[in-house]
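TL;DR need structure tokens for one chain.
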Amino acid sequence: MPNLDILKQLIADVGADTALNLLDIFKDDADKRLAAIADYLENGGDVAHLRVQAHSLKGLCRTYGAPDGGEAAWMLQDACDAGASEADIRALAEAALKIIPVDMAAAIDAAHALHKQT
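>> reply
TL;DR here they are.
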């Protein structure tokens, strides 16, 4: 569920059009990071690189009003930091791939709805 307070503040700070442009950039960046997580799940890889992707997604999601995505990314980052088992990391990566796109889309849709109100 999007954080409307963050989205309203973003719109107030930079204007609705700029906020929507920033959300487009957010989506593009997040999509690339999600692709890196999907690649990790398909091909394996470096947990440190996975952690960087999760950390960046955490910040992106929290900054742009997608708190559930931010939480999913934080849980993945935390598991990487803690040296969790491969099975746990994979489960959290799979969860992040399900949660983050949905929460991102909800935040972007909410921003468009707020834009129409201005």
